[in-house]
Amino acid sequence: xxxxxxxxxxxxxxxxxxxAVISIVTFILSAFFLTTRGxxxxxxxxxGTVLEVSYAQAADLNQIREVLNGLNMSDVTVQNFGTSRDxxxxxxxxxxYSSAKLSETVLEALRQADDTxxxxxVEFVGPQVGSELLENGALAILFVSLGIVAYLAxxxxxxFGVAGIIANLHDVIIILGFxxxxxxxFSLTVLAAVxxxxxxxxxxxxxxxxRIRENFRKLRKVEVTTVIDNAITRTMARxxxxxxxxxxxxxxxxxxxxxxxxxxALALTIGILFGxxxxxxxxxxxxxxxGVKREDLVRxxxxxxxxDGAVV
Amino acid sequence: xxxxxxxxxxxxxxxxxxxxxYTLPNFFGESPAVQISPLRVSNPxxxxxxxxxxxSLKRANIQNDGLFLEEGSIKVxxxxxxxxxxxxxxxxxxxxxxxxxxxxxxxxxxxxxxNLGALPMYLGLDLRGxxxxxxxxxxEGAISTALDRHSADxxxxxxxxxxxxxxxxxxxxxxxIKFRDAESRxxxxxxxxxxxxxxxxxxxxxxxxxxxxxxxxxxxxxxMQDSTVQQNITTLRNRVNELGVAEPIIQKAGADRVIxxxxxxxxxxxxxxxxxxxxxxxxxxxxxxxxxxxxxxGQVPFGSELYEERGGGPILVKKQVLLTGDRITxxxxxxxxxxxxxxxxxxxxxxxxxxxxxxxxxxxxxMAILLIERNRTxxxxxPVIREEIGGGRxxxxxxxxxxxxxxxxxxxxxxxxxxxxxIIEERTVGPSLxxxxxxxxxxxxxxxxxxxxVFITLYYTAFGAISVLALxxxxxxxxxxxxxxxxxxxxxxxxxLALTVGMAIDANVLINERIRDELREGxxxxxxxxxxxxxxSGTILDSNITTLIAGIALFAFxxxxxxxxxxxxxxxxxxxxxxxxxxSRGMVNFMYGSRRKLETVPIGKIWIPENSRTKKKFNYExxxxxxxxxxxxxxxAESATSGSIDAHEKNAQxxxxxxxxxxxxxxxxxxPEEALLANSNxxxxxxxxxxxxxxxxxxxxxxx
Lengths: 312, 704
What we know:
The complex is a heterodimer. Chain A is an alpha+beta fold. Chain A has helices at 16-36, 43-46, 61-70, 99-113, 127-155, 158-182, 188-218, 224-256, 258-289, 294-301, and strands at 40-41, 48-54, 77-81, 83-91, 118-125, 185-186. Chain A has two domains: 12-41 and 129-299, Multidrug efflux transporter AcrB transmembrane domain (Multidrug efflux transporter AcrB transmembrane fold), CATH 1.20.1640.10; 48-125, Alpha-Beta Plaits. Chain A contains ten helices and six strands; from the N terminus they run H-E-H-E-H-E-E-H-E-H-H-E-H-H-H-H. Chain A has a four-stranded antiparallel β-sheet with strand order 3-4-2-5. The longest helix of chain A is centred in the last third of the chain and has 33 residues, at 224-256. By secondary structure, chain B is α+β, with helices and mostly antiparallel strands. Chain B folds into five domains: 6-23 and 433-593, Up-down Bundle (Multidrug efflux transporter AcrB transmembrane fold); 30-107, ACT domain (Alpha-Beta Plaits); 139-221, 2-Layer Sandwich (Gyrase A, domain 2); 277-424, 2-Layer Sandwich (Gyrase A, domain 2); 610-703, no CATH class. Chain B contains 23 helices and 23 strands. Chain B starts with 5 loop residues before the first helix and ends with a helix. The model of chain B is unreliable at 612-704 (pLDDT under 50). The chains are: A alpha+beta, B alpha+beta. Chains A and B meet through helix 4, strand 5, helix 5, helix 7 and helix 8 of A and helix 10, strand 22, helix 14, helix 15 and helix 16 of B. Strand 5 (118-125) of chain A pairs antiparallel with strand 22 of chain B.
């Protein structure tokens, strides 16, 4: 079986203008939604309490709301999730209730209204812990970005590092844009997915970069665009199959992973799809923009050809 | 060329064996058990206790599934959780409070595996259910307690040295010591400076007032913070013991935080109540001189406070703190010589000295032991001091029942937090959700794996099957490694396990695509396999290191569930590089490497582009302008590093995968050609191969 029967190099680089337009438009849209709507930050980051309860039969959300109103709790979200029997209750930080008491008070009240209620999960995060987690998340993204740039700069050249990280931060912004647009909950697990995407989709760029380097060595006096086109075309089969395989697993997570893994898998899906696009169209394009040259890579290795040289 | 030395196969075999061995315990599951651990050193867990446990279970007619003594505690297995809970209640009532009786899960794996140290992975709270708390020590509270203690000490010292002073006041985080003249202040300063290392003093002169301002030194603050957190951890540990949790985790996190994890706790309300009992103990004097009735009407005299006595009426207590709970090292219920119920308290050295002085000065008066919880203070007991008590052994007796004595002892022992704590994070997972989460994580991994396996096998046939085998070994090694390290598996960890499956296949896809490429280029099967592996490995390394960087950052900055994800991700990268590059190569070498005439590579049908015959596609030289011949030698040497045709010629010679073994240049140049002709088992391939081979040889000869 062979899916990709490409007989000549696909002129990816000749489409770079339209790709630039797509990238800039999606980027601006993402930035727009991020600033206007903002991320729907989960309790991990905002602080507050989330209670997950399940009932023996379909839950009566109005009754639950009434019970909570009876406790003088305002600004409460009550919603079904998963099945009609499962209910998620979100409470903001309440200074009147001590952290530990809050969930107990709510559960006790719910139990009095309907004693089939069963506690599934309680999450309480104090406000200062929330902001710390957010800070650590931002630090982690920064650290990963710098680490990747440094590694690519050492292994290839600084232009590759810059191109790789811009392409991947572009993915991250788009994932965040999706989360802002649809107001999906952005939790700690989603942040983990975002960071995983950052590491994973750099793979993609690295594979193409590797080919570009190889082509620079093999093909002398060829246009840089041809070198890049050839590198992308020849790695395309691998790109699609690899991402297809990863996506299969992610789909399994979407289907079987339940509520916690759902948004995690969703973030990965967006990351994988845009990861393909960005490493093909964005990373290489930036590489061109930065004026990558054959000499950038080959010069370093010409000093020691004797060992590997052909001896016939 | 595609052969491994024996030791390499041995490495694969050994790692496979280890992987199997250490993964195995995870499949046996766990059974409910009750764990009985002595709370005191005086009654150790021994065979006598074992007999006692067995007898009381037999009397209650409870069937057990195994009973054994291990690591200083007795563990009893049961068939189901109902019997487990029943057994816990029975044992609790028959053994009493001297033992901690906790519900636990014990691995079902056979003993010989446990003897090898092969234990199942430790399941995180989100998988087994339980409570996670992060508590923060209220350092402001601790500082004010310390200052109160200092102010009492300073007063006493000044009195003893007969230095006249006007008063000692605490204001926020400073102490103000007031004097009437400069002389006594000088005296006091020199005395205090030498006696109080923790404090720094500053003179303040304004409006004819002679004040000394004392604050706690920075290094003393840091040390105090450490010891406060440590003291609180000890106290929390005691409380958790009262709660009966089998494998609690109580650890320091950051400068002033403590993490408490109680796996398998069903009654979370009780856990919170006991842990949240942020109490401190103080010993003060009862104010007997002033009017209690007036105080009850609202006129509380200056320097005293009104509290309720436990099981008694209101009581007026002086504000001055003489001793705090952190001086109490132990408190046990017991009896006096004439068999009255009593509480025995032990104090540490410092506490004993203070207590000796306190009792000497106050014989005949009442002291009060106060338990201060958040916003609530009660007087636990207020005994009369009969005589001077030295040596730090205190006995409180009179007008209490055995049960009350036990209660007071418990409160004194467990209630002594050095500073109040706040719960700043809580994650509770009910047991049913835990079980669901295991299923979800397992199903995601299983179905994801199956989908990838089917697809890769269809796409790459035999080589695909080898990739899938390598992938399963990857999972095996990863789970084995996690079990060896006894890492905690969480739901995000399981997600990382599934993700590893999806990502690890990347390495094999890279290799297989490379081999196909090399075959398209016209290499012989053996050479193509070799070249495919050799060239893909650099790329695989690069791409995995970037993911590793992300994983390490996640581990460093992540907390709780995210850390679990990061651990599995990082280990998964290591095992996947090992299996995809080293193990799958081993399998390929084992199956195909020894065949002298490998005619085709079973890697799926390879499509060779039509126009390759006219050399439009991957013939690089066609893209290049005609080259200076003298430069070609140098260039061929250079390009060999990344592997153009020259490199294969070099390889072709010593290993001789094809029929050509000659050393002369023109013959070796024919190697790919003949291999390709040999490859012609289908008519289509034959024509293509033939044409291609001709073209190839033309290219070669021109180069030479």
